[in-house]
Design goal:
heterodimer; A: alpha/beta; Rossmann fold; 7-stranded mixed β-sheet; 5-stranded parallel β-sheet; 22 strands; B: alpha/beta; 6 strands; about 40% helix; about 25% strand; binds thiamine diphosphate
C-alpha cells in the first residue's frame, strides 16, 4: 500500500505539484496560500521555486515557463489574483504549452484578509476553468488533474482553495513524481502574441474550448453524484461538501470538483431526480445563479449567507430546521491580534502618535497600528496604496494639508507595488513623507524572504536590493535611515521631514523581533518608584499590565527587552534585570 | 468508535499548533482517520486562536462545532471561557490557570472577568493547573503546553508510550527530554 501521511491542504497542493512534475513555481506570500511555496521548496532538487515581488510577476514567470514547454505554477491569495489579473485575462486567450496552474486561496470569514471576494467570479470573467478540492487528498489529486486537463484542453487552470482547506490537515497517500517530457517550443505568434488580430481569433477559440470543457465536465470523475434519499438533493463543492456530509448524511449530493465551467447536463439530470434542490456554496452564488438561469428551481442564498464560513450546524438549522439547544457563548472581552512585544513598529507608532500625525496605511503587521491605544493608521486598502493615496490627498488638498500625514509601508509591501507609487510621487512633484518600516522580512505572513533580504526561497544567498539606494536612484534627496527604537532621533527626523516642501523617505531599519535570535534583556517594574503616570503603557505593550494599585507588572515570559518602556519612564521605575546580547 | 472532537484554544504565539499536531500524530498512529484545522496568519499575532482535532473511523468536517467537543484544552483562562460552550454535556475542560490580558483590558476599555474557573466549574468538568508555574520550575516556561496536554491525555485512550513516541517525533530534538518531563507532570497530576 502507498505511504499515508498527514498533510496541511497547502502541503498536499505542493506535493501534488511535485508529483505532477512541475518544473517552475513562482509566488508572492499571502495567507492562506503561503505554505504552498514553503512546502514546495523541499523538492528543490526536482524543481525550481521562487518568491516573486508580487503576484503579477509570479504569474508571468509561470506563463513564461509554460510557453517554454514545462509544467509551471503560481500561488497567491484571492486579492493577489487582482494584481495578477492582467496576465490572467490574456493568458486565458493564449492557452498553454506546458501545463499552467494558478493556486488561488479565498478567505471566507476574513481570517487574514481585507475583503471576502470569490475567485470563481474572476475565473468566470476571465473564462478560466477552476477545480476545487474538499480535503487534503483531493488537494493533491486535483493539482495533478489540473495539469493534465490544462494540457489536454490548452487552458490555464485555477485550483481554488479556501482558508479552511488550506489550513486543515488530512491524510494523503503519496505517489511518485512523474517526469513529463518537456514540450518543444514551436514559434506560433497567432497563439502567443496577443495583438488585436490574433486575440480576436483566440477569443473565438477559447469560447469553443470552454464549451468542450463544459461538455467533458458532464462525465468527469471529479463531478460525482451520490444518490441517496431523494427528498433533499444538494449541489455543493469544496469544504462545504464536508459540512453537508455531517449535517445531511441521508441526502443525495452532487459534488462538483470542477466549479467552472459547470456540467449542465449532469446538473439537470440530478435536479430532475430530487424533490427539493439546495445549492450550498460559501461566498457568492456562483453555481446557484447559473443553475437558476437554466430554469432549474433551487434554494440557495435565500436561506444561506454570502458572508463567512458555513458549518454543519448552520445547514441543520437552515434545511432541517433543527433546534440545536446550544449553550449561549459567554460574554467576554475580545482578543484582537496585536503587535508582538518588542515589535519595532510599536516604537514608530508611539512617535507618530506623539506628533499627532495621521498615517496613510498599508497592509502588513503594521496595519495593527490602526487600533487603540496606538490609533495612528487611518487607511488600509490594498498593497502599495499608502503611498499613492497620500499623493492623492496632496493633489486634492495641497502640500500644507499633508503636513499632518505620513505614509507607512512595510519593506515587502514597498517592493510589491509601493515602489511604483513612490515613482509616481517623484514624477508628479509630491512633497509627502513616506516611512518604510523595514523589519527585514515579510512579517504578517510568517517571515518570508523578499528581494531585499539577501536570501532566496530556495535558501541561496543573493543580492539584496538596497532600498535606500533605490529611493535615491529615483531622485529623492531626503532618504534617512533610523533605528526604530531610537525614539528621540526618530521624532526629530519625522518632524523635520514632514515640515519640508520636498518628498522624503524615512526608513526605520530594525529587524522583526521574532527573527532576532540573540539573547534578549529582561526588564522589571519597580513598584516603589512607580508614580502610576501611565507613560510606559502608552505604546500598548502586551507584556505590561497594571496591578490593582496602579503600579506596573511586566510579564517575564513575554518581555523581549526592547527597552521602549524603560526609555519612556521618567522616574527610573523600570530597570533591566538581565542583560542580553544587544 | 464515534468521532472524537478536541479543541485547543489559547492566545496566538502560545504554541497551539504544536499541540494539535501532536494530537493528530497520535490519532494517526492509532490507525484512525484524522483531520486538523489550524490558524495561521493574522490571528497568530496575539489574537484568540482555536485549533481543532477530530479523529475516528471516518471524519468529514475538519472543525468542531458548538456543543460537540469531547475535550477542550485551554492555554489561558479567558480563552477557556470564550469557547466553553463548544463542550459536549460531559466534556472535559482542561485549563491552564494563567492570565494574559487582551488589549481592551490593557487599555482599560474592558474588564478581565473574575472567578472564571469557579463559574465554569458550575457547568462543566474543569481540570485546572498552573502549568506555566510548573514549567518554570522545570526550567522553561514555554513547555507549559506539554503539562496541559498531559492532563488531557488522562481523558483520552492512548498509552503513555504512544504519547512519548509522538512527542519524540514532533518537538525539536534538543527539547525532547524536558517536553517528556513536562508531559509526565500533567499525566500524573490528580
Ligand atoms: C495583493 C496582496 N498580496 C498579498 C497579501 C498578503 N499580505 C498581507 S501583508 C503582507 C506582507 C507584509 O510584509 P511587510 O510589508 O514587510 O510588513 P510586515 O508584516 O513585515 O510588517 C502580505 C504578503 C495581500 N494582502 N495582498
Amino acid at each position: 500500500m502507498a505511504e499515508k501521511v498527514i498533510m496541511l491542504g497547502n502541503e498536499a497542493i505542493a506535493r501534488g505539484a511535485y508529483e505532477a512534475g512541475v518544473k517552475v513555481s513562482a509566488a508572492y506570500p499571502g495567507t492562506p496560500s503561503t505554505e504552498v511555496s514553503e512546502n514546495l521548496v523541499q523538492y528543490k532538487d526536482s524543481l525550481y521555486c521562487e518568491w516573486a515581488p508580487n503576484e503579477k510577476v509570479a504569474t508571468e514567470v509561470a506563463i513564461g515557463a509554460s510557453i517554454s514547454g514545462v509544467r509551471a505554477m503560481a500561488a497567491m491569495k484571492h486579492v493577489g489574483l487582482n494584481v495578477a489579473s492582467d496576465p490572467l485575462y490574456t493568458v486565458s486567450y493564449m492557452g498553454v504549452n506546458g501545463g499552467l496552474v494558478l493556486v488561488v486561496a479565498d478567505d471566507p470569514g476574513l481570517y487574514s484578509s481585507q475583503n471576502e471576494q470569490d475567485t470563481r467570479m474572476v475565473a468566470r470573467a476571465a473564462c478560466v476553468p477552476v477545480l476545487e478540492p474538499s480535503d487534503s487528498q483531493e488537494a493533491k489529486d486535483y493539482m495533478k488533474l489540473a495539469f493534465t486537463l490544462s494540457e489536454q484542453f490548452d487552458r490555464p487552470f485555477i485550483l481554488r482553495t479556501t482558508t479552511r482547506l488550506a489550513h486543515s490537515q488530512g491524510m494523503v497517500e503519496l505517489c511518485d513524481r512523474e517526469e513529463p517530457e518537456i514540450k518543444p517550443y514551436v514559434k506560433n505568434i497567432q497563439k502567443t502574441v496577443m495583438m488585436p488580430g490574433m486575440a480576436k481569433e483566440r477569443h473565438k477559440e477559447i469560447e469553443k474550448r470552454n464549451l468542450e470543457l463544459a461538455e467533458a465536465a458532464d462525465t468527469m470523475p471529479v463531478n460525482t453524484v451520490e444518490m441517496n434519499d431523494t427528498k433533499i438533493g444538494v449541489i455543493t463543492s469544496g469544504i462545504p461538501y464536508q459540512y453537508v456530509k455531517e449535517a445531511l448524511p441521508k441526502a443525495s449530493v452532487l459534488k462538483l470538483g470542477m466549479v467552472n465551467p459547470l456540467p449542465e447536463k449532469l446538473i439537470r439530470e440530478f435536479a430532475s431526480k430530487v424533490e427539493t434542490l439546495y445549492i450550498i456554496e460559501e461566498l457568492n452564488p456562483v453555481i446557484e445563479e447559473q443553475v437558476k438561469s437554466w430554469g432549474i428551481p433551487a434554494i440557495g442564498k435565500e436561506i444561506f449567507t454570502i458572508q463567512g464560513e458555513y458549518s454543519a450546524n448552520m445547514i441543520r438549522k437552515a434545511i432541517l430546521h433543527e433546534e440545536l439547544n446550544l449553550m449561549a457563548p459567554a460574554e467576554v472581552p475580545n482578543r484582537p491580534p496585536i503587535l508582538c512585544p518588542g515589535c519595532p513598529h510599536r516604537s514608530v507608532y508611539y512617535v507618530l502618535k506623539k506628533l499627532k500625525l495621521h498615517a496613510a496605511g498599508d497592509i502588513g503587521c503594521y496595519t495593527l497600528g490602526a487600533v487603540a491605544p496606538l490609533s495612528v493608521v487611518d487607511t488600509c486598502i490594498c498593497m502599495g496604496a499608502s503611498i499613492s493615496s497620500l499623493h492623492g490627498m496632496e493633489k486634492a488638498r495641497g502640500k500644507e494639508y499633508i503636513k499632518d500625514w505620513v505614509a507607512v509601508i512595510g519593506d515587502s509591501t514597498f517592493l510589491h507595488t509601493g515602489v511604483n507609487s513612490l515613482m509616481n510621487m517623484v514624477y508628479n512633484q509630491a512633497t509627502g513623507t513616506v516611512m518604510i518600516l523595514d523589519n527585514s522580512t515579510t512579517g504578517m505572513t510568517g517571515h518570508q524572504d523578499h528581494a531585499a533580504t539577501g536570501n532566496t526561497l530556495q535558501g541561496d544567498p543573493t543580492w539584496a536590493i538596497d532600498i535606500p539606494g533605490l529611493c535615491r536612484a529615483m531622485g529623492i534627496k531626503n532618504v534617512i535611515e533610523v533605528n526604530a527604537f531610537d525614539i528621540a532621533r526618530l521624532e526629530q527626523v519625522v518632524k523635520e521631514e514632514v515640515a519640508k516642501d520636498e518628498i522624503s523617505v524615512i526608513i526605520t531599519k530594525t529587524p522583526c523581533v521574532l527573527l532576532d535570535k540573540s539573547k534578549k534583556p529582561l526588564y522589571r517594574a519597580i513598584s516603589e518608584k512607580c508614580k502610576k503616570c501611565g507613560m510606559c503603557m502608552k505604546p500598548g505593550c502586551p507584556a505590561m499590565t497594571r496591578n490593582a494599585d496602579g503600579t506596573i507588572h511586566i510579564d517575564d515570559t513575554m518581555c523581549t527587552g526592547c527597552g521602549l518602556c524603560e526609555n519612556l519612564c521618567k522616574f527610573n521605575a523600570i530597570e533591566m534585570v538581565k542583560a542580553g546580547d544587544r | 468508535m464515534a468521532v472524537k472532537s478536541i479543541m485547543i484554544v489559547g492566545v496566538g504565539g502560545q504554541g497551539t499548533l504544536l499541540t494539535s499536531r501532536i494530537l493528530g500524530g497520535l490519532a494517526m498512529q492509532g490507525g484512525y482517520e484524522v483531520k486538523l484545522s489550524e490558524v495561521h496568519g493574522m490571528a497568530q499575532r496575539g489574537g484568540s486562536v482555536v485549533t481543532f482535532v477530530r479523529y475516528g473511523e471516518k471524519v468529514a468536517e475538519p472543525i468542531v462545532e458548538e456543543g460537540q467537543a469531547d475535550v477542550i484544552i485551554a492555554f489561558e483562562r479567558l480563552e477557556a471561557l470564550r469557547y466553553a460552550h463548544f463542550l459536549k454535556k460531559d466534556g472535559a475542560l482542561i485549563v491552564n490557570d494563567w492570565r494574559i490580558d487582551p488589549m481592551p483590558v490593557v487599555i482599560g476599555t474592558a474588564q478581565y472577568p473574575e472567578h472564571i474557573l469557579e463559574d465554569l466549574a458550575k457547568e462543566h468538568k474543569v481540570y485546572k493547573v498552573d502549568a506555566t508555574e510548573e514549567a518554570r520550575k522545570l526550567g522553561n516556561p514555554r513547555v507549559f503546553n506539554m503539562i496541559v496536554l498531559g492532563i488531557a491525555a488522562q481523558h483520552m485512550d492512548f498509552s503513555k508510550e504512544e504519547w512519548y513516541q509522538v512527542i519524540e517525533h514532533t518537538v525539536p530534538p534538543k527539547t525532547i527530554e524536558i517536553n517528556k518531563k513536562a508531559f509526565d507532570i500533567g499525566y500524573t497530576l490528580k
